[in-house]
Design brief:
Elements lengths: L1 H6 L26 H10 L4 H15 L13 E2 L4 E2 L12 H8 L6 H15 L3 H6 L3 H13 L6 H15 L7 E6 L7 E5 L3 E10 L9 E5 L19 E4 L9 E9 L9 E11 L3 E2 L12 E8 L37 H4 L15
Parallel strand pairs: 4-11
Antiparallel strand pairs: 1-2, 3-5, 5-8, 6-7, 6-9, 9-10, 9-11
Length: about 375
């Protein structure tokens, strides 16, 4: 019953009533404390879309102003508009005033209020599981709105618009991201022919388009599925599921090169056929680039490999064998890669030896 009483104390909205219109859209980041709040939740380990979803809600609630009082003199206080008589000063074990006293800080401190949000999320709940499961801004914003703010008139589209603006303004600084530059193996719709036991040097060059520098923990890992043991892993691989790593550091805006070899199996382990290798970038023990809000997606970097017997029997790139496929492919003909990337130009993408799959991805 105590929990029920707490949940019924709904967070108010301090914003001008005009902001309650669900038709309005935020074109830019609207409030001075957007970036400090965004950076705070990134530092706690949330992804950019999850952090932006929280800040979009705080924009609607208060403009991220720790001194806010609900519009019209209502009970809402602070950046999340916690209610007087509830989570602002009364709820047992769960109110801003008591938490501030415990921390020796002012309850109107921005840092204190951000820390209290984190306390409630990680110790009380209020949708933490749903928030951290969100992979796009819309889902993250709605999870925080429905389960943390528990608002009355929510204006969800405005919250999502604010969150999008925050992500667009600050998200790139917080993500690992890469785009294609060049590679040594053939177009993914064509096959790289390798004889049983043969090792073929390979490299791929990618540009750091995120806000974080790459280092020796930035690695080219197997995908589709992730961390798959590759049949083409050779002695120069870091591990059967890690082809290569960056040497030194690669600053944002610079190019990084991953060098390795495709090595075909020998003996009975070498089954002639057409195989498909997929790779993604991973910041070891931190995040896959595809999960950070950047990219590339798991199925975008691809090599089609035709394995032929060691005596040379076969017909090169046109060889069709009977081996099972690696990385979720089916056969050489049906798995030829597309050359259409969202927002890209097929005329130049057709030159790339990388499989770009047209997909709809949300950056909202």
């Amino acid at each position: 019953m105590q929990r029920l009483a707490i949940l019924l104390v709904l967070a108010g909205c301090v914003a001008d009533p005009a902001l309650e219109s669900s038709d309005e859209q935020a074109a830019t980041t609207a409030f001075a404390n957007d970036k400090p709040a965004f950076d705070f939740f990134i530092a706690k380990g949330l992804t950019p879309v999850q952090a932006a979803g929280i800040v979009g809600n705080l924009d609607q609630e208060s403009g991220v102003d720790p001194n806010s009082v609900q519009y019209g003199g209502g009970p809402g206080r602070g950046i999340a508009q916690w209610s007087v008589g509830g989570r602002w000063d009364t709820s047992s074990g769960d109110n801003v005033t008591a938490y501030a006293s415990q921390q020796g800080m002012s309850r109107t401190s921005l840092t204190l209020q951000l820390e209290f949000i984190w306390f409630e999320l990680t110790h009380i709940g209020y949708g933490y599981a749903q928030l951290t499961a969100a992979t796009n801004v819309t889902d993250a914003t709605l999870a925080f709105m429905d389960r943390y703010e528990i608002c009355g008139t929510c204006a969800s589209s405005q919250r999502i618009a604010y969150a999008n603006a925050v992500l667009n303004a600050y998200g790139n600084d917080a993500v690992y991201s890469a785009t294609y530059v060049s590679q040594s193996w053939p177009l993914a719709s064509m096959a790289l022919t390798i004889h049983c036991g043969e090792s073929v040097p390979a490299q791929i060059v990618l540009k750091n388009t995120g806000g974080k520098a790459w280092n020796t923990e930035t690695k080219l890992g197997t995908t589709v599925p992730r961390d798959r043991t590759s049949m083409f892993a050779g002695p120069d691989w870091l591990a059967p599921n890690r082809a290569a790593a960056i040497s030194g550091t690669v600053a944002p805006g610079s190019d990084g090169t991953f060098k390795f070899s495709f090595t075909a199996p020998t003996g009975d382990a070498c089954v002639p056929g057409t195989y498909h290798e997929h790779f993604g970038l991973v910041q070891e023990a931190t995040t896959w680039f595809a999960d950070s809000g950047g990219g590339p997606p798991d199925d975008q970097i691809e090599a089609q490999i035709a394995v032929v017997p060691a005596d040379g029997t076969g017909s090169g790139s046109g060889y069709t064998g009977t081996g099972s496929d690696v990385g979720g492919g089916t056969d050489g003909a049906s798995q030829s890669a597309g050359c259409a990337a969202a927002g890209g130009d097929a005329s130049w993408l057709a030159l790339l030896g990388i499989a770009f799959v047209r997909r709809r991805r949300h950056r909202c």
